[in-house]
Amino acid sequence: MSLHPLDWLAIAVYLAGMAAMGAYFARRNRDTEEYFVGGRRIPGWAIGLSMVGTAISSITFIALPADAYKTYWLRFLPYLFMPAAAAVAAWLVIPFFRRDRAMTAYEYLEHRFGPSVRAYGAITYIAAQLLRVSFILYLVALMLHELTGLDETLCILVAGCFVALYTIAGGIDAVIWTDVIQTLVLIGGSLICLATIVSLLPGGLGQVFEIAAAHDKFALGDLEGGRLVRASWAIDFSQKTIPLMLLMSFNFFLTDYATGQHAVQRYCAAPSLAEARRAMWTNVLVGVPTWLFYMFLGTALFAFFEVFPAPEARAMLEGAAKPEGIVPFFVLGHLPPGVAGLVIAAALAAGMSSLDSSINAISTVFLVDLYKRHWVKDADDRHYLHVAWLAGGVASLAMLGGAVWMLTAEGPSLQDISIRLTAVLGGGLLGIYLMGFLTRRGDARAVWCGIAATLVYTLWTTGFLPVAVPAPFDLYYAAIFGNLAMFVVGYLGALVLPRREPLRQGLSLRD
């Protein structure tokens, strides 16, 4: 099914608006302070909406409704513990990054443990983000191909180059303010889909709940062998149980908020600690309902196609086709011309808001934590700004190359490989920060003991290290044990290898 000219017009207007914002903010970027942290004057509500946009990628826009459509609500469960992680980050973690007018998350690691640990954090972050943006762009291309019929490689080049241009030119100002617009667009696009479903169903919104209740679609469970298996409340690390999924969620979100440059850079862009905390709560108050809404959209699509059956929708429900196609199928088949273009723009917004944040964060970390810290220490600020542009360009080229490779690569599961590599590159980082925040012990020697142990552990659990004994737990929980291994081994190393120099005040909650 081809797009109507009105749909193409809607997409073009959206893209033109994003390009205009990038060009506007490019004129303000005369130094690295403006380019990386927006002059430290960006309001908390805008930062919070930007964090929501960054978290909701195209895979979320497509995959969450697909999951609720085909199965049940088990995978919404982790989002319920997001506020707990946000509370810890807002009151205990953010103040550490607001000190000394920092620009990156890894400056703290040098103050606490030394330059080698800072370099480790920076390098692992860059490597993990390059993998992440390549994978997201690959998924964006697949989605655009399905929605528009354009060649997949062309979709990668057009979407990737567009995001790269406005991000490199506009800096963090362009990233945050375009993310604000993109967040509003993607929420609006989802609302349009739900409103259309409700208007077409004879029984309206009530019929969605009736059909969902009749099929137990709101259950906290999964689909196994064609039937509902409810999640257990047991503490069993070999399966996905309710309390352990909540624990996994807390670990995931705290890792993101305490160690991710894309989050920390935003705290530093706020004009005050109060505004940085306001950003976090805006993120929670908008983010959790948005994820809830995406799940409900999938349930509403299930109800819709129960009333208006379609062979394509039935195939997705029964496993003959991928359920991720349900949102594109509905958009192209049931939304009027022009409106479908707005929803496609929303899907684009979901991917672009994740990509621009990562490109800008990679550029910041490379310049501040590696180039300026270790290689060229005394150049003028204009030189560093040019290097930041170059770093963003190189990161963008790597993203494009990685996405094209994923498009053509042969293999059973690129997502599985991606998850494993990300685990290796980011394993134990939260454990390092917790050791710094919660104790006054240890220096680089102790941390490197923990890093070595965590690396061996991660290689074992992800299958890169061939051993006879497999991990005795679901890989959903691998990151939890990785952070625990880092913390325990690092702390034991600190007991054996006491600090050589006294720790200055303000770097630990023990002060």
**Average predicted local confidence, pLDDT:** 87
Second CATH tier, the architecture of the largest domain: Up-down Bundle
Q: What sequence of helices (H) and strands (E) makes up the elements? A: HHHHHHHHHEEHHHHHHHHHHH
Spans of at least 5 consecutive residues whose pLDDT stays below 50 are 411-416
The oligomeric state is single chain
Radius of gyration: 23 Å
Fold-level CATH name of the largest domain: Sodium/glucose cotransporter
The number of distinct helices, counting runs of at least 4 residues, comes to 20
* Percent of residues in β-strands: under 5%
Whole-number count of domains: 2
Strand order of the largest sheet: 1-2
User: Distance between the terminal alpha carbons, to the nearest Å?
Assistant: 64 Å
The major pleated sheet works out as: 2 strands, antiparallel
